[in-house]
Amino acid sequence: MQKNRLSWMIGGPQGSGINASAEVFAKACSRAGLRVFANIEYHSNIMGKHSFYRVRVDEDPIHSYRDKAEILVALDHETLVGDGDHRRWPTHYGHLNDLVPGGGVIYDSAIDFDPATGGRTDLTFFPVPFMDIIKQALDGVGKGEQARRYEVMKNTVGLGASLALCDYPLDLVADVILGQFKGKRSEVGQLNVRAAQLAMEYVKTSVKDFPYSLKPRKDPEARLLAKGYEIHSIAKLKAGCQFQTYYPISPATDESVYLERHQREFNLLVVQCEDEIASINMAVGAAHMGVRSSTATSGPGFALMVEGIGFASITEAPGPVLVMYQRGGPSTGLPTRQEQGDLQFVLHPAQGDFPHIVIAPGDLEDAYQDTFSAFNWADRYQMPVIVLSDKKLAAAYVTLDKLELQYPEIDRGKQFTGSEWTRLEDNGEQLVRMYDQNGHGDPKEYLRYAVTADGISPRSRPGIPGGRFWSTTDEHDPDGHITEGVEMRTAMMNKRMGKLALMLKSVPVDQKYKVWGPADADLTVVGWGSTKGTIQDAMAVLAEDGKKINFLQVRLMKPFPVDEVSAALQHAKKLVLVEENYSGQLGSVISEQTGIRIDEKILKSDGRPFSEDELVRELGKVLAGGKGEAVVTHVR
Amino acid sequence: MSVETKPVGPVKFTIKDYKSDLHNDWCPGCVAPSTRIVMRAGDRPIADLKVGDLVLGHDGAYHPVTEVMSHWHPAPLHRLTVQGLGETLLTEDHPVYLVRRTRAHRTNANYVAEWTRADQVRRGDYVAYPIPSEIVDQPSMSLWYERKLKDTRSKPLPDSVALNEDFLRLAGYYIAAGHTHKRALIWTINNEERDLVDDIVALVGQLFELRAGVRDRSARNNTFEVTVASSYLTEIFGQMFGEGPENKHVPEPLMVAPLATQRALLRGLWAGDGTWRSKNTAYKTISPVLSHQVATLLLRQGIVPNVRREPEHGMHAAAYCVSVSNAAGYNRLAAIAGAAVRPHPLRRSPVRIIDGYLYAPVRRTEVVEYKGMVHNLEVEDAHSYVTTAATLHNCGDFGILTAVQMALAQLNLDPDKVACFSGIGCSGKTPHYIKAYGFHTLHGRVLPTATGGRLVNSGITVLAMGGDGDGYGIGAGYFVNSGRRNLDFTYIVHNNNVYGLTKGQASPTLSKGKKTKSMPEEAIQDGINPIAMAVAAGYTFIARAYALEPKYLAGIIAKAIEHKGSALVDVLQTCPTYNDLYTKEWYEGADLPERKSRLYKLEEQGYDGIVKDVTDKAEIIQKKAAAVAKSYESEPIPVGIYYQAALPTYEDGVNARIPDLADKPLVDIDTFHRDVTSLLDAMR
Asked: Mean pLDDT per segment of 10 residues, for chain B of length 684 residues?
């Protein structure tokens, strides 16, 4: 009997409610003190195409999924056997392949499926009459003949049935369900609970000796169960962000919709724009106007935004902060899938040399701090900041012990506030601008782009008396007027680019990079972004085997912490690059920045994140002297 | 954009408050800095002119300068030498107002002036030179002076002096033969002109009740000295007419006095310092301002003068000789001056005065090396100014800039609370010249940027501006969506049918089949109709105006700013450099048989595009349909307000969603102490 360590999977057509069931289950586990890592795989499609949701549960911290699940809930035929029967290029060959020996399968008995033909005689199959159970639940409220209208409750039936397998108490799940149906809809909630209960009872009679179980812990700690887009959003709220623009795009939209839902209570204005070019430029306009502004997008949207990055940078706008959720590229690519393919793109998005900041958080804790810090940096260094996230980070549903900022101070940078001035004084018929007693500078001479010692000119905003300025996307002088003069051009380039070195000096070291694991490791894994958790999980597995591995996480991508990363790399005995892209983009950046080449690469670019098992296997190979290889998700 | 138009206390902004210190340097057509510009108060080098100065326009009236600009010009200039007037040094593309000579060696039968580039001016062409026609019959002039407490010797003066022939004659005597010395006025008169001495003594007594002393200095230099010992009158005359020969001038009220009165002034001038020969009479002065004023006084009398500069030699300063040698002028001036001379025998001048214009032939055109600053002006209404030797067009691109500044002044908006956003192109540079917050953004992206700015600070008046390519081409998506939003801001589009900054390719408003001189082939795609597009997109204020009528345009822009909602002002604009189809002359209809403007004002034809009841859908549809129909009228083109409806704005929607925003701008709301506990609780 394996207790409190299993993967639960539900599959069905898009729109069949697998998200709801999986998230109810995940939350019920999290509330019971178990840790969860749950992630969804779905098609770029509204209704009908296959999607599945994996919920991995454990007592120890987990940050990735396993190749094989213990329980499968199948709402349709394709979930069991794949789409090879009707698709020329199959996406998968059925999730029966994704189950451990001895695993259990809950499926709708109405599905035309013979377990004997599934090729998995080692599994236990539990056909359940989904519609009968729904009808039964409806009979309780006298609506039995309306069963067809309640077909969507199949997901709850599947969930309820699976609880019988792992022997998990229904009341925890019922609490979560009822919490989601409040007020007028509470009746629907009750119906769902009833259906789950009936399904559970139906299966319970036929389960015996199922080898995997879950038990709620006593006195569970109050943990959070969160998705990355929520964490990015809350970080924006904590940072005082006042303005968010967006154009709908997977997988970035969730963030903006989440913020939009809460705009009234937090005085945050969210604008849905006509395209991403409008999004970025509105955000730049708002930043210049003095608010903390931000936007969120994914690769194809970012491809449109690039001119706005250059605009914000040359005009030294205090922002915006842009959360960039990577998805599978190139072009429209794999809209709903995972990839770390845009690192080099966000580092070099537009023409010319210009300063901007790129930071790539590795998990939700990083994402919270980095998104928060991004606004401080935008204000302090007057440049756009990109927080490089991805689909996995955005959509994975993960247990968080706590959500805290290590660096919680708000810093709005150097500002010209107008307090140096008194208002326009009326002196007979003349308007006279008066100095105040401290009298800084000549009132006629506020220079928005003054060439200062540290390159940062105090910023003003429209409405500040005496703080009037011009700004232009042309090269300009301290007044903000156009110049093409050799000396002024040079001074301005030095001023702008110099801010990067200043920024690099003041960023806390752990926001730049971090080495996880033993210092004297035999193998150093180099990676970034959302592979962090998977690498950590794999390291933990390999450590149990006595393997000494550590992990260099690069977090600040621009300005690049050249000295620190070089030192860490030189200190390593053997290096291996782990990235979810085709070419090893961090490897290229490291090579460009430090001159160090990493030859061993474990890369994956099939649109799915690494599983823990894949990394354990590949790292083990490299550790044993083998070659790192490109990884493809197993589908057969 | 709705604004609080009430003045803030006594503060009243004027157009000057919206001028940035940046001088325009992208203006085509300029003149050398020493070029003297004819003003209501004498003339001055162009480099010294300021916004607000009144200068003579090609229409013979005075107009305020609305913009001054200058730039560095290390390239040759054209020098035009005009008979009787002198020289003007200008860039090759600067338009000059002149009449083509129809046949060489023959005077023209007809004089029809047109604007001609300096490098196309030919010897023999006639410069059309406007004769200032303003007449102000001011009965008297107040005599203001500061009464000195300790001065017991000077007798008090009357409060004012009548602007009659007596005073102007005395003024003439003073300008010609007087000067100030310490606390006295002194006339120095040739001892052969005793009657002049008597006249001065009599006039001083009659006009100011002062006694003049006469000293006979025949022994020393054959002169009489007439002295009036009044420190007050000395101060007044010194200020009014100049203290010494180098700064002598005619004060403004006298320059616009009725012609009969001015004749007395001429009489005084000639009596004091005029010389007569048998075929020529001349007035000489070392004051350049006075020389031109004398010439102007003569022109107003229908007398053709000839102004010649005599270079300095030895201890003598440069002098200006205003002479009259043609028979008609000579004889007329003799009559005015009361000079006992024999009539001039008939000698026709090649110079003509017809209907308020002097037509003076160009004697020489040259190209000269030059390296230095050149200057230009923008002049209200006339769009032209007059140098001492020629009539020049002003810079064509600034009608819109000036109109924006006029509108801001009209609404009395605090420059600190105005933000101007622009795209890329010639028009994109506009904010740099406006003293307000200025954002020169990306090509085609001005509207989203302005939208972001507007949304987070509702206390700021937001203007967006850009070209037709910027707004209707690369920025077309934002043009449409900004209308859809009905955000409270004003969008001014400079519509000149070409991409000026890249040297004149067709813009989205150029019609099919058209070809400007800068295009290798004619357009094979049609132009869009911005007015109709704005109607469809949802703009709630849609107007069109013409750049070279800045006053009208300013009125439209002011209304657009006051309108609560998305306002489009499509401004028809010429591009003197690249668009040879839609020129100033084309808009003015110079090529039409009846020479009738190709523009007409909607309101003058009884059109009213303003929706009275915005709850009445039928009225909205009817007004929209009417606006679209009007927008397809081509010749003449309607200008004015096509459509206006006070419909709910985007801000209204935002305020309903986020009630705190109705009370203060987002930028002023504290968002740095948020409690996110509720969001975290939802995650448990």
From this structure: 43 77 63 90 89 91 86 87 90 88 78 86 92 91 74 74 92 93 90 89 91 88 90 90 91 93 94 89 92 94 91 86 91 90 76 90 92 87 89 74 90 93 89 93 97 96 95 96 96 90 86 89 93 97 92 95 97 83 87 91 96 97 98 95 98 95 95 96 92
Q: Does A466 touch chain B (CB under 8 A)?
A: yes
- In angstroms, how far is the first alpha carbon of chain B from the final one? 46
B477–A274 C-beta distance less than 8 A:
yes
Chain B CB contacts of A464 below 8 Å: 416
Name, in order, each residue with C-beta under 8 angstroms of A327's C-beta and a sequence gap of 6 or more.
A250, A251, A298, A299, A333, A334, A335, A336, A337, A338, A339, A390, A391
Nearest-by-Cβ selection for A277 from B419, B437, B445: B445
Q: How far is CA B546 from the centre of its chain?
A: 17
Measured between beta carbons, which residues in chain B are less than 8 angstroms from residue A30?
684
- The Cα B87–Cα B348 span in angstroms is 23
Smallest Cβ–Cβ distance between A281 and the set B436, B448, B456 belongs to B448
Beta strands in A84-169 (DSSP E): 99-108, 124-128
Q: Which of B647, B288, B268 is nearest to B487 (CA)?
A: B647
User: Which of B3, B449, B463 should be substituted to probe chain A, the one whose Cβ sees the most A Cβ atoms within 10 Å?
Assistant: B449
The strand ranges marked E within A289-396 are 293-298, 321-326, 357-359, 385-390
CA torsion through residues A348, A349, A354, A356, sign: negative
d(CA A473, CA A314): 6
Amino acid, res. B146: E
How far does A118 lie from chain B, in Å, by closest CA? 39
Q: Specify whether the CB–CB gap between B522 and B514 falls below 8 A.
A: yes
Residue A285 C-alpha, separation from nearest chain B C-alpha, in angstroms: 4
Write the CB contacts of A206 (distance below 8 Å, at least 6 apart in sequence): A126
Task: Let me know: does B630 contact B607? Beta carbons within 8 Å.
Answer: yes
Reported ipTM: the value is 0.93
Judged by DSSP in three states, A37 sits in strand
User: Under 8 Å CB-to-CB from A437, ≥6 apart: which residues?
Assistant: none
The 8 Å CB, 24+ separation contacts for A125-134 are A126/A161, A126/A165, A126/A203, A126/A206, A126/A207, A128/A157, A128/A158, A128/A161, A128/A199, A128/A202, A128/A203, A129/A202, A130/A75, A130/A154, A130/A157, A130/A158, A130/A199, A133/A157, A133/A195, A133/A198, A133/A199, A133/A202, A134/A195
Candidates B25, B420, B442, B456: best to mutate against A (most CBs of A within 10 A) is B456
Residue of B nearest to A466 (CA): B416
Query: What pTM did the predictor assign?
Result: 0.81
- Most A-contacting residue of B440, B446, B462, B664 (CB-CB within 10 A), to test interface: B440
